[in-house]
Structures are given as C-alpha cells and as structure tokens.
Amino acid sequence: MLVRNVDVGGERVDVRIKDGLIEALSDHLPALDHERVVEGKGGALLPGLHDHHIHLNATAAALQSVHCGPTEVEDEQQLIAALHRNPGGDWLRGIGYHPSVAGEIDRDWLDKYGPDRPVRIQHRSGRMWIFNSRAIAVLDANIPDDGRLVDGDVLVRQALGSQRPDLGQLIKKLLSFGITGVTEVTPGNDRLDLEHYLRAARPLRLSIMGGEDLHAVDGRHAANIGPLKIHNHDHDLPPLSALTDSIKKAHAHGRAVAVHCVTRAELMLSLAAIQDAGPSHGDRIEHAAIADAAAIEWIKRLDLTVVTQPHFVAERGAAYLRDVDRDDLPYLWPLKSFLDAGIRLAAGSDAPFGDCNPWKAMASAATRPEGLEPHEAVTAEQALALYIKPVEDAGGEARIIEKGATADLCLLDRSWSDARNVLAEVSVRATWISGEMVYDSISSTRPQSSAV
Ligand SMILES: [Zn+2]
Asked: Is the domain of 371 the same as that of 427?
C-alpha cells in the first residue's frame, strides 16, 4: 500500500507499507502495479498510539452501563432519572458514582428510588459496589446488609458467573482513535483472562498484566505477559517484607512489577519495597498521583517508569480542589516535573475510570486546568510521546516513523502543526496494525487504474 502526501515530522512525504513494515519513505514514490493508494491529504502520519493502562472488560461493560456521577449526573434528581431512563427487567449496572451526587447511598436508598430490577452501582474509585435488595436476592452471596460491598470484585464475578464481556464495540472505538495496542492492567487477570483478551481484543497489540498465575505462562503467549500488577490500599497496606518478597518472586520469574500508587503512603511503601528487592528493568509505578520532589528523586534513583493519567486533572478537577488535602494539591498528578527529572514516563487512560480518548488526554496534558499546577503542562509533542512508547516497554524511547519500522500507524485529519494546538479536536482517518488497515474512514481510496 502506498500512503501519499502525508506529514511526517513537518515534511510532506509518500510512505510505502509492505509486509507489515514501512518499506520506503520519500518525497515522491511512484505507485507500483496493483498497489493500493491512499491519499493522505497532508494529514500527520504518526506511530499508532498505545494505551499503557486500561481495564478492557470493565471498559466494555461500561459502554453498556448507566453513568451515575459527574459530569453526566450531578445531583439526586438526575441520578434517579438516569436509573429509570432505560426500563427493563434484567440487571442495571451503574458506574462512576460519587457521593457529591446524593451522599453515601445504600441498599435502602436504591430500593426506595431506584427501578424494580437488580441494580448494582460502582463507586467512582472502582472499589465499592452498592446493591439493591433485588440484586442481593439474585446474587446469593455474602453482601453486607447495607448493600455496600468494598473490594468485592472477585465475589461479584463468582456470583454472576464468569462471563466476560464482548470487546468488539470497544476495540472498534479504540482503533478509531488511532490506538494500535493496549496494556491491560487488571490485577486479577489469570490464564483464562489472558486467553479471552488474546481472542477478543484482536487486532490490538497486547501486553497483559495480572497476578502470580501468569508467572509460569510460557510458549507462544509469553511475549504478551506484562508485569505483575500489585494493588495495595492505604487502609490495608501489607508489611514491607511481604511486598518485597512478592516483587523478588516476580523478578525471579523474569517479570517486572507494576505497583498501584495513588496516595503518598502507597508510593513510599512501594518505593521502599522495590529498593529492598532491587529494581528490575520495566518496573512501573502506576498513577503516582501524589509525588513531591523527594518522591520524584527516589523514583529517578530507582530508574522506574511512571505511567500517569494526564486527563484526570481535567475530568476530576473540581472534585480534586474540593477533596484533596491542601498540602497534597501542589504535588497532584505531576507531569512536567517527571520529565524535568528525567523520569521514564508513559500514559494510559485507566478506562473505565477515565475517558479512553487519548486525544482528550493529550490536550489535558498540554493545558492544565486552573488551580491545578498549570506549570505541570507539557508540550503537545511531549504529550504525544507518552502514547507512542513501545508496547512492551512503557519506559522506552517513543517510536518514530522511519524506514524499516513496524507499520503500526495512524493518519490524522490534519497536519501536526494544525493539530498540536487543538489536540482534543483531532480525528483519525485511518489506523494500521502490522501494515493492515484496521480502521478506515477514507472514502477516496481507489485501486490504480493502470493496474487493471
Ligand atoms: Zn487502573
């Protein structure tokens, strides 16, 4: 395939894709017989984007769920309306609930105001489900009397049966953003999940984190296995020695670790444990939502990779300004500080907890909202770089368009110089994975007449 007239690094060029690679790149390439030609219209041709932190099953389920929190739902009346909008007898799954909407709702609240069907609503943190009485009756599981179940994902999954959602709609959406690969980071991922993702998330490139069950996966799927995901919580932190041991064990199996760190305490404990275990290439800190200068210096000393969510300051800005400890606000979601310190940095959506549109996230990285450390903004190029790191190495160098590179690509509707100041408005015209056009909104493609 020949992609004509595209913007690569500010130059107008033609690009030939063959056998999954960029075979040639030059200011003019004549079309070969039988070659498909795509007119790029001067749009930027970029490396395919990679979402370095996503929960696929939960995001697919969220596409079929009712949004129960800001900004879709702001108060109690809106929540009640949202819960009754789509009548039906089967499960209603709500997501994104925040107490700013109607306080700490429980089983009684849902019974009184919700619809007459099994209802379960997830708190925005992702860590609590709230059930109504009909749901509790159906589930036949050990749900607390008030219907509020904390950290009960495994229990819910067992009770509901282990059906995994169809990922088709989500994958199409990701491809349409120019995403060519994702890192699936759900801590509970086991071998069955691995098989499910490999089957259901095609054609995306995949790196799959998960639990210790994935330590011993070998053979043809070994390349898809990502770090051990470690998910600690402030209210229930493990002893340092236990954490250190699980890190050592993962390293002994040739796996890096990826540790969820949202609070100061989680980050400090995780850094101490990685230091004790001895850091290994590819070890990651997920989120690093609060990191002061000392923490950043420590992360640098251990040469860890940070995977951040630049869009959270835009999506949750008002709630942060209200809820986050004043002393922590200056260190909330650093971005430029990480780059200035030379930290290996990549980004991911954390969907369904954040929007899975990487262009909105890049826009937010380049323009921080008022009151949330605007000096942490980065350039559009630095924002893009966070989404084009190698699939298997979020801390590596950003991929580039060059001869011989794997043809994982996306073509924008405008040149990079036109895109860089309006990243949220960018739309993707085509996406390629391994040279296959996997998303195509270009109608003007045609076979070469000379070839027929
Ligand atoms: Zn996550």
From this structure: no
The model's confidence at residue 443, banded by pLDDT at 50, 70 and 90, is: low
CA of 58 to the centre of ligand 1 (A): 10
Residue type present at position 134: R
Residue 28 belongs to domain with CATH number: 2.30.40.10
CA of 86 to the centre of ligand 1 (A): 28
Q: Distance from the CA of 186 to the center of ligand 1, in angstroms?
A: 7
Q: Is 262's pLDDT higher than 80?
A: yes
Q: What is the pLDDT of residues 166-176, one digit of tens each?
A: 899 999 999 99
Give the global pTM: 0.86
Rounded alpha-carbon distances, angstroms, from residue 295 to 83, 286, 331, 376: 42, 14, 10, 16
CB-CB contact of 46 with 177 (8 Å): no
Which domain CATH number covers 339? 3.20.20.140
For residue 445, what pLDDT band results from cuts at 50, 70 and 90? Answer: very low
241 C-alpha to ligand 1 centroid (Å): 24
Task: Report how far ligand 1's centroid is from the alpha carbon of 348 (Å).
Answer: 9
